[in-house]
Amino acid sequence: MEYVYAALILHETDEEINEDNLTGVLEAAGVDVEESRVKALVAALEDVDIEEAIETAAAVPAAGAGGAAAGDASDETDDEAEEAEEAEAEEDEEEDDGDDGGEGLGELFG
Q1: Is pLDDT larger for residue 100 or for residue 37?
Q2: Which domains does the chain have, with CATH numbers?
Q3: pTM score above 0.70
């Protein structure tokens, strides 16, 4: 997840999400950077509108609580949400290497 967090930090600070910037953020956080993961994330996020994916992800719990609101979403939004989920799933698969070395945002502060 720290790779995704790094991408979100870059997005929030209006920096380009590329291999060098991701590596820099991860190294600053003390993460042992794997070049293959960085490349995979950059490639997965290439055609993703991160701002829209964030809005879509934030809207999903609210839509689920409203019932009918979930049925009103456009197919285009569903497609983009699926793309974001696929990118995240791809990242999760790469991270599942059996190393539970305290990964996560909490490790940056603890």
Answers
A1: 37
A2: 2-97 (1.10.10.1410)
A3: no
